[in-house]
Design a protein that fits this description.
This protein has one domain. The chain is built from six helices and eight strands. The chain has 206 residues and is an alpha/beta fold. An eight-stranded mixed beta sheet has the order 1-3-2-8-7-6-5-4, with helices on both faces.
């Protein structure tokens, strides 16, 4: 992998003009908690974490792995983030942090802009605006606290499960402890499935 890409939590409002400020202040605390408190406790004063992002561009089949540094300097005090588990259970913390990872990666790798949440989860979690598509794309998100398999098979299996749920759109799955890569690990891909009785057309960037 090449030199790391740097992603700051504080960039969310610029990356997502319609939703970024809410994502930052609603879910930033949970993200920092998952990156430096639990499942891995980092030393005091650390305000960044290396993570691995696997990304499949639209129209491609192979994942490309990227080294990414996620930073949160100056956003929230560590003690405040340590106490996040007082008000949120473990599942909610993980899902909230996974939303932030999805927002950062869909912006960085797909130039996507999250518009708003989808009220019915049967379709997906968020609508994402992308330049190459006339209508907003769906974004389906899942968080995993730990994947202790040597090859990261739990994370990949969950990504495939989510791909089967989405007829067309983005899938983002993040594991905050990932034995396979040794860092938090996130997968972002675009999926499309043919409708019954119709042939699948070619899709890609215009």
């Amino acid at each position: 992998m090449s030199n790391p890409i740097r992603l700051e939590l504080s960039s969310l409002p610029q990356r997502h003009p319609l939703s970024g400020e809410d994502l930052l202040y609603d879910y930033g605390r949970a993200t920092i908690h998952r990156l430096c408190v639990d499942p891995d406790l980092l030393p005091d004063g650390v305000e960044e974490r290396e993570v691995t992002i696997e990304h499949t561009p639209v129209g491609a089949n192979l994942f490309t792995a990227h080294r990414v540094i996620v930073g949160w300097s100056g956003h929230l005090e560590r003690d405040f983030c340590v106490r996040a588990s007082v008000s949120k259970n473990a599942i909610d913390l993980t899902e909230a942090a996974a939303i932030v990872f999805a927002a950062l990666t869909v912006s960085e790798f797909e130039r996507g802009r999250i518009q708003h949440v989808i009220q019915t989860t049967a379709k997906g979690d968020y609508y994402v605006e992308v330049d190459w598509r006339a209508k907003p794309a769906l974004l389906e998100i899942r968080g995993i606290l730990e994947d202790d398999t040597p090859t990261g098979s739990v994370t990949r299996a969950k990504a495939e499960e989510k791909r089967q749920q989405v007829e067309e759109g983005y899938v983002s799955v993040t594991a905050f402890r990932h034995l396979g890569s040794g860092t938090p690990h996130s997968i972002l891909c675009y999926t499309t499935r043919p409708l019954r009785g119709k042939k699948a057309g070619k899709r890609g960037r215009k």
